Amino acid sequence: MRIRVALTALAALIALALAACASDGGSTAAMDHGDHDDRSQAAAANDADIAFTAGMIPHHEQAIEMSDIVLGKDGIDPRVGELAERIKTAQGPEIDRLQGWLRDWGAEHAGHGGDHAGHGDGMMTEEDLAALRDASGADASRLFLEQMIAHHEGAVQMAETQIAEGGNADAIALAREIASAQAAEIQQMRDLLASLN
Fold it and tell me: Is residue 19 scored above 50 in pLDDT?
């Protein structure tokens, strides 16, 4: 009888120990999983990453629109035409990449900031775009360069903010590429503009 009671008590203790282990294991796994999710979310994007990405999409779209306007004109300087084509070739795929990031981050509906004009990001107003549409020949080449220099300067500022404040390595790397490429194009455009005057 005593042996049976002892065995029963031992079995109960073993069952309790196994249950405790299973419970601890489950909660540890859950905690580890939760921590991993938090780390993944933190590594995905911070507010600066989302602002940069959401803002750069319409910025690139407008650069392509400006390029299309000038490429549709007769009598533009061939060097200006080559630059406009290069801008389109570079920025089109970047828009796709930026949109993909917003989807991956669950931020595809992030606002693009509404009316950008006057906020230091180089965006042209509707009046600026209308002036470019109305210009022709050498005037169109000159105006395109003047507007695109300001536009690129805004993009460089946006990229520098992202480099300083962003958390996503891919977005920071793209910001570095944009800052470098567009700074070089700004110098090229200034040289071109000087040769047209």
Answer: no
